[in-house]
TrEMBL record:
GO molecular function: dioxygenase activity
Keyword Oxidoreductase attached: yes
Protein name according to UniProt: Dioxygenase
Origin species: Mycolicibacterium obuense
Short name of one Pfam family: Glyoxalase
Gene3D superfamilies for the chain: 2,3-Dihydroxybiphenyl 1,2-Dioxygenase, domain 1 (3.10.180.10)
Source domain of life: Bacteria
Amino acid sequence: MASGVATVWLPVKDMKRALSFYGDTLGLEVKKETDEWSELDANGLMIGLNARESSGADGSGGALLTFQPDGGIEDEVSRLRGEGVSFVGDISDHPWGRIATFKDSEGNDLQVYEPPSA
């Protein structure tokens, strides 16, 4: 089960342009900035800007909700598959954590996220 929303992230094609829009135009505070991943504070909600990794989301654009499961990511992926949920690829490993992308009932991309182990 999901314990809450871990983040909302948006796929971006041009990180500098996106940071200018969200930071300068909208006035959100930039908390982290890299070429591949940046984070903004939206009144306590972290918004991530993702430079469209090749695995995971299909790259068609749009916001993505990322949920943090109560247990491990493998258990949650297994549970969701048992409920008939269809995943887009396998669990992907990154220095900042692990993700698995799936579709909701309407075809929107969602993810489960597991932070890196300490």
